[in-house]
Amino acid sequence: MTPIPYLDLRAPYMELRVELDAAILGVLDAGTYILGEEVESFEREYAEYIGVKHCIGVANGLEALVLALQARGIGAGDEVLVPSNTYIATWLAVSAVGARPVPVEPEEDTMNMDPGLMEAAITSRTRAVIPVHLYGLPARMDLIGEIAARHGLFVLEDAAQSHGASIGGRRTGAWGHAAAHSFYPTKNLGAFGDAGAVTTDDDDLAARLRLLRNYGSPRKYIHDVKGGNSRLDPMQAAVLRVKLKVLDEWNERRSSLAALYLEALRDCPGLRVPVASEGMTHVWHIFAVRHEQRDALQAKLAGAGIGTLIHYPVPPHLSGAYRE
Ligand SMILES: *Cc1c(COP(=O)(O)O)cnc(C)c1O
């Protein structure tokens, strides 16, 4: 039997090889290697795709989270609500600005942040909440947004795993005050290296983000704030523009494969398959199942040549990074 790897990053490249090669060569030919037209075009196209006014291309998904928190003025003494089950980047962004990540447990069925537990975790120091659309399934943004509004919290979506997902037709990345996107190669919309973006409808926040990602500089050698260097690479922007055109089609493919799995795995003893809540479009970044004998199941699949991964073997609060 042909082995089935967890993920083959070369396959999508081969499928779009002609267009991708042309896009990369186009950047080399144009002679602009930092920011410029390619980045601006991607920002325009991605903002339109998500359904927001602004997209600010940055270096990676972690930076997108960090800069959004920084642009909002969140820092020392502040508490930020995060899912206890997420990739550690969500937590590290909060720590990077000097604030404290406060974990909220997930709902059993969707594996996303539980809105009731979120509200219970709010204190007088809570300034923001970062819901993650884990595995490609949107978090309950209507409820989370409503609770956040009542407590005056900044809502920053971590949309790293949910490109194209939506709730009632409105895409993830368009629900919070801002959203962080990662284009890490394995994501549904993946670059050929590191890349990320922030989307927002807030004009002021967008302007601050543009300064922060580029040395605080509105014009060459003029520096208004102490910014950093976190720019989206034009080569990656060119790649992302090609892949954005097929994102919906590729998500559809994931969706039909997921439907096959869901049908075939029905009534499988001890196995819990993912649940797509009503009105939500799951984009199946990861088809995550739970099983009472997880490690034995993984070993059995490996024996059959089927690659799997544990997402995630150690939750952030039990990792060495959060020993304290
Ligand atoms: C991938 C990912 C990130 C970080 O993205 P990078 O581009 O690798 O920095 C953040 N949050 C979640 C949930 C992710 O899956």
Task: Please characterize this protein's 3D structure.
The chain has 324 residues and is of the alpha/beta class. The chain has one domain (10-245, 317-322): Type I PLP-dependent aspartate aminotransferase-like (Major domain) (Aspartate Aminotransferase, domain 2). The protein is 37% helix and 14% strand. The chain is built from eleven helices and twelve strands. A seven-stranded mixed beta sheet has the order 1-9-8-5-4-2-3, sandwiched between helices. Helix 3 runs parallel beside helix 9. The longest helix has 18 residues, at 247-264. The mean pLDDT is 96. It binds pyridoxal-5'-phosphate (PLP). The site of pyridoxal-5'-phosphate (PLP) has 15 residues, from helix 4 and helix 5.
Q: For the record, what is the CATH homologous superfamily label?
A: Type I PLP-dependent aspartate aminotransferase-like (Major domain)
How many domains is the backbone divided into?
1
Radius of gyration: 20 Å
Tell me roughly what share of residues is in helical segments: 25-40%
Q: How many individual helices?
A: 11
Q: Biggest β-sheet: count, sense, barrel?
A: 7 strands, mixed
By CATH, the architecture is named 3-Layer(aba) Sandwich
Hetero compounds: pyridoxal-5'-phosphate
Structural class: alpha/beta
For the record, give the distance between the C-alpha atoms at the N and C termini, rounded to a whole number. Answer: 47 Å
Order of helices and strands: HHHEHEHEHEHEEEEEHHHEEEH
Mean pLDDT: 96
